[in-house]
From TrEMBL:
<feature type="binding site">
    <location>
        <position position="115"/>
    </location>
    <ligand>
        <name>5-phospho-alpha-D-ribose 1-diphosphate</name>
    </ligand>
</feature>
<feature type="binding site">
    <location>
        <position position="109"/>
    </location>
    <ligand>
        <name>5-phospho-alpha-D-ribose 1-diphosphate</name>
    </ligand>
</feature>
<feature type="domain" description="Phosphoribosyltransferase">
    <location>
        <begin position="106"/>
        <end position="166"/>
    </location>
</feature>
<keyword id="KW-0328">Glycosyltransferase</keyword>
<dbReference type="InterPro" id="IPR000836">
    <property type="entry name" value="PRTase_dom"/>
</dbReference>
<feature type="binding site">
    <location>
        <position position="113"/>
    </location>
    <ligand>
        <name>5-phospho-alpha-D-ribose 1-diphosphate</name>
    </ligand>
</feature>
<feature type="binding site" description="in other chain">
    <location>
        <position position="110"/>
    </location>
    <ligand>
        <name>5-phospho-alpha-D-ribose 1-diphosphate</name>
    </ligand>
</feature>
<keyword id="KW-0460">Magnesium</keyword>
<feature type="binding site">
    <location>
        <position position="168"/>
    </location>
    <ligand>
        <name>orotate</name>
    </ligand>
</feature>
<dbReference type="InterPro" id="IPR004467">
    <property type="entry name" value="Or_phspho_trans_dom"/>
</dbReference>
<comment type="subunit">
    <text>Homodimer.</text>
</comment>
<dbReference type="GO" id="GO:0004588">
    <property type="term" value="F:orotate phosphoribosyltransferase activity"/>
</dbReference>
<comment type="function">
    <text>Catalyzes the transfer of a ribosyl phosphate group from 5-phosphoribose 1-diphosphate to orotate, leading to the formation of orotidine monophosphate (OMP).</text>
</comment>
<comment type="pathway">
    <text>Pyrimidine metabolism; UMP biosynthesis via de novo pathway; UMP from orotate: step 1/2.</text>
</comment>
<comment type="similarity">
    <text>Belongs to the purine/pyrimidine phosphoribosyltransferase family. PyrE subfamily.</text>
</comment>
<dbReference type="GO" id="GO:0044205">
    <property type="term" value="P:'de novo' UMP biosynthetic process"/>
</dbReference>
<feature type="binding site">
    <location>
        <position position="140"/>
    </location>
    <ligand>
        <name>orotate</name>
    </ligand>
</feature>
Length: 202
């Protein structure tokens, strides 16, 4: 089983091997084909639930290591919109300690707290103009992560890049380019689908 392989090597495998193992884990746990209705109301012939991977213990380690490796050298924090990004930013922050380059994690609420500080952003307050990279599990149109980008900018942070585990290739990359944001993804949905079909019994 993929999870057994990952449990032996997620913390020590080279990044190329780790990427293939995480792709296996996505196909095993997160990707399904059939008839689905997405949160947008749009119908789809497949569904991918990234939290099945990012909340998996070895999946979290693999996610943290791969995304950490993609961060610009001047990154001062990682952040994302709750709920999908919560385990991702936490994993990257934990991995950063083991890499001797501690990077705080921030979680952006969809709505401000209705009590206490009324905050949109959870996590340690950073100096103004700190460089923050927004992380996402699955990007479709790009609008979800853009909410996080805007909240972070409103709080005084610099945000120039979004990194996702999966790009569904439905306009997200083009949207980010149109608003001047850099974007990269670990996997495209085409790559996951190809890998998934190869793994199916003949």
């Amino acid at each position: 089983m993929t999870s057994e392989i990952l449990s032996q090597s997620a913390a020590t495998a080279d990044l190329a091997t780790l990427r293939h193992q995480l792709l296996d884990l996505f196909c095993e746990l997160a990707y399904r084909e059939g008839d689905f209705v997405l949160s947008s109301g749009k119908k789809s012939t497949y569904y991918i639930n990234g939290k099945q991977v990012t909340l998996h213990p070895q999946g979290a380690v693999a996610t943290g290591r791969l995304l950490f490796s993609l961060l610009p050298a001047d990154t001062q924090a990682v952040a994302g919109l709750t709920l999908g990004a919560d385990p991702i930013v936490s994993a990257v922050s934990v991995i950063s300690v083991y890499e001797n380059r501690p990077i705080p994690a921030l979680i952006v609420r969809k709505e401000a707290k209705d009590h206490g500080t009324m905050a949109y952003i959870e996590g340690n307050r950073l100096p103004a103009e700190s460089k923050v990279v927004v992380l996402e599990d699955v990007v479709t149109t790009g609008q979800s992560a853009m909410k996080a980008v805007q909240r972070l900018r409103d709080a005084g942070y610099q945000v120039e890049e979004v990194i996702s585990l999966v790009d569904r290739q439905e306009g997200g990359a083009e949207f980010y380019a149109s608003v001047g944001l850099k974007f990269q993804a670990v996997f495209t949905i085409a790559e996951i689908q190809q890998w998934f079909r190869k793994s199916q019994p003949a």
